[in-house]
């Protein structure tokens, strides 16, 4: 029993003389940034092409080292922005 008391006294003494632990640092609060708007999700559109038009698209894409979808998006933007092109495409579409 004496050894138990001695161990408890030693332990208590060690705890009393130990260096105090520093207080935990306050959490750094980061300013809230406004959320960046995400670009709109692309809409999938399936297009059936005649074999010769498919070949033209694939070959052009390979030659230019871009995806065929990139070429189609460029063509559609030009169709939207160029009224003379739009008129020519419309005339050809009505002949189909």
Fold and architecture overview:
The chain is mainly α. The protein has a domain at 68-96. The chain contains four helices and no strands. The protein has helices at 2-17, 51-64, 68-81, 83-95. The termini are far apart.
Task: Give the tags.
elongated, 59% helix, 4 helices, single chain, 0% strand, 96 residues, mainly alpha
The rough form would be described as: elongated
Q: Helix fraction?
A: 55-70%
Overall radius of gyration: 37 Å
Number of strands: 0
List the helices and strands and how they pair.
Elements: H1 2-17, H2 51-64, H3 68-81, H4 83-95
Helix pairs in contact: 3-4
Offer a quick outline of the entry.
The chain has 96 residues and is mainly alpha-helical. It has helices spanning 2-17, 51-64, 68-81, 83-95.
């Amino acid at each position: 029993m004496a050894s138990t008391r001695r161990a408890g006294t030693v332990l208590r003494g060690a705890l009393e003389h130990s260096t105090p632990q520093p207080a935990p640092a306050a959490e750094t609060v980061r300013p809230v940034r406004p959320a960046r708007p995400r670009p709109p999700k692309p809409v999938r559109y399936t297009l059936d092409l005649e074999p010769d038009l498919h070949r033209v698209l694939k070959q052009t894409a390979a030659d230019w080292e871009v995806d065929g979808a990139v070429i189609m998006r460029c063509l559609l933007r030009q169709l939207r922005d160029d009224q003379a092109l739009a008129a020519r495409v419309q005339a050809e579409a009505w002949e189909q």
